[in-house]
Amino acid sequence: MGLAGTRIGLALTGSHCTIDQVFPQINRLVESGAIVIPIITPSVDQSNTRFSDAGVIKARLAAGTGNDIIRSIVDAEPIGPQKLLDLLIVAPCTGNTLAKLANGIIDTAVLMAVKSHLRNLRPVLLAISTNDGLGLNARNIGVLLSAKNIFMVPFGQDEPLQKPNSLVSKMDLLPAAAECALRKEQLQPLLVFHEFV
Length: 197
Fold this sequence. Notes:
- This protein is of the alpha/beta class and 197 residues long.
- 35% of the residues lie in helices and 18% in strands.
- The chain is built from eight helices and seven strands; from the N terminus they run βαβαααβααβαβββα.
- Helix 7 links the parallel strand 4 (124-130) and strand 5 (150-152).
């Protein structure tokens, strides 16, 4: 099928330690011919952390995609009514975003984008990155796995000895998962092994 000409929303949430892993995948999407529209949460928009600087992230997003960043609920809302996207990817998708999405809470541009996009019965692809995926968020992951039109980039425990509840998607599988999601299929296997020390 390929991704050429596909309009993809790429939404970043505040798993700041994982954001750098997403940028090579954004480049791969753009190189494949996809039109990538960046969307960010307030955490990504405003927070400088030991992992990343908000200004640098936004500059990289704008330069890498060639498109303006959607930063507000108001700007995200037209995604559904105007059918702006073929696919919406949330990468990284934090536990906070997972929990809110599973419970219908819409209070960021990313969550509004997902809600608005799903109204068209179009696919959403989540690339999770959460320290409590096998803890409090396990229930929310189950809810979303059983939801229509929601797919996941395959994931696994990234540090089972140090952080036994932590789950992270294998970001290098994102383009392949995107192609599957566009066909309304889940890339398999869903559970993958992360190398760890």
